[in-house]
Amino acid sequence: MTSTPEGALTTDTTGPDEPLDLAGIGIGPFNLSLAALAHPLTHLRTAFYDQSPAFHWHPGLLIDGATLQVPFLADLVTLVDPASPWTFLNYLKTRERLFPFYFAERFHLHRAEYDAYCRWVSENLPDLHFGHQIDAVRWNPEREAFEVDFTQLGTEGEAEALGRTYARNLVLGIGTTPHIPVPLRLLADAPAVPVIHSADYLDHRERLLAADHITVIGAGQSGAEIFLDQLRARPAGREGLHWLARTPAFAPMEYSKLGLEHFTPDYTRYFHALPERVRDGLVPGQWQLHKGIDHTTLAAIHDELYRRTLDGGWPDTTLTPGVCVRTAGRVGTTKVELHLDHTQQGTRSRLTTDAVILATGYRERRMDTLLAALDPYVRRDSGERPRIDEHHRIALDPSVTGSIYVQNAETHTHGVGTPDLGLAAWRSATILNSLTDKTPYPLPTRTAFTTFGLPQPSTPRTGTVPRQGSTLVPRH
Ligand SMILES: Cc1cc2nc3c(=O)[nH]c(=O)nc-3n(C[C@H](O)[C@H](O)[C@H](O)COP(=O)(O)OP(=O)(O)OC[C@H]3O[C@@H](n4cnc5c(N)ncnc54)[C@H](O)[C@@H]3O)c2cc1C
Description:
Layout: E1 22-25, H1 29-38, E2 46-50, H2 88-94, H3 98-104, H4 111-124, E3 128-130, E4 132-140, E5 145-153, E6 159-167, E7 170-172, E8 176-178, H5 182-189, E9 195-197, H6 201-210, E10 214-217, H7 221-233, E11 241-244, H8 265-272, H9 276-285, H10 287-290, H11 295-307, E12 317-320, E13 323-331, E14 335-342, E15 347-353, E16 355-358, E17 362-364, H12 368-371, E18 404-406, H13 411-414, H14 424-436
Parallel strand pairs: 1-2, 1-7, 2-3, 7-18, 9-16, 10-11, 10-16, 11-12
Antiparallel strand pairs: 4-5, 5-6, 8-17, 13-14, 14-15
Helix pairs in contact: 1-14, 7-11
The structure holds flavin-adenine dinucleotide.
Flavin-adenine dinucleotide is lined by residues 25-31, 49-52, 58, 61, 68-70, 133-134, 173-176, 222, 362, 365, 370, 407-408, 419-422.
């Protein structure tokens, strides 16, 4: 990680004549994986930028005991390069924690441990620039490179300097943002009564515990974890907890071994080759693959509720699925009133509560603002979404000889595996193989027992990658 002396006005970090080979925008797990796998490719000149002052993975949800939903092998590099110095196991070795991990027999890491591992990688990899907000990207035909404008931010997020860098190719790994349903947006913006998104849960935990009654909305993993955390911490018999969800049930996440093969390169390739309308029809029906609740969390909730009936009586909790919030408003200065619709019953009711936690999920961060100047060059599908090829490249007008790759913004073309950490290393390797016109990371031609789709006579099953855009001649 490198930093520029305070207040210095930087105009061009790549030197007057040489654009970078690759600039990465956003340093979440996915671009961190790419940076770690690019590191040994010394002929590649790369730099990655993130607006946050340092790497922190979903800090508002590092709830004690919360774990990843994928095994530790889904770290930043292992599934394509198990000998990399950036593996989770090597991180443990540097921390002299391999034996404790060996005896811990933990396949699913604590979320806090994954966060610490990624931060270790981010603090030891070169060419990662935190505190750099990328403001705009445009194509410079003279330089045959993208111009990337950034604002250097101070530790409090204040703008300190403006700068520009040039790169032949870009990768957007700008992640997701919390989603707040329309009926609750006004309330979420007003600080008086806590109406918070689950992403900020730990910042408000104590205040929520002090409230007599709280309502959790949303039946995903975050909603379940917050409900469980509050349930465990609130006095028996005076829990004052409502848990509401639009889904017809508090349903488990699909975790069967064959079901999980939807998170493989084989399924991603199959999905990408489907017609657009078929892809669009498939995704909503696959919600339980990535939006359900981990079965161990569901079991822990039932256990805690059951434990609270041992002295007789039932806990003061209400868990109701199939309910959506039609509107919401304030009651005085200290309470919120939710107007609820029960879809199956066709009934309505009102719920007054002291605080609301919106475990209502995330949406892919919009690329349009960043890429506004490139809009004329971007090829779009019938839904006005960027067309993205099998190498995770945005389809651009041929006059743009550089490539723009995306990470975690291509569910519409690559399916449910897009936000999955288990595909991080494979996607990064796919991008680097495409970028270098070589195969620094040979990839498996088969990754699932399920054969998705019927074999097509024309489908090649080789590891090589056809090219588009700028050619990268390795620098000796
Ligand atoms: C609480 C939670 C738990 C999850 N657990 C799992 C799990 O167990 N298993 C799993 O497979 N998936 C999980 N996911 C899904 C997914 O893996 C994560 O969301 C992951 O963080 C996505 O990584 P990312 O790199 O796409 O984006 P993010 O982690 O969202 O990072 C994007 C980065 O881009 C930066 N950025 C954005 N715009 C700009 C800009 N203009 N300039 C500079 N920087 C910018 C942001 O500051 C941010 O640091 C979880 C998601 C959440 C929310």
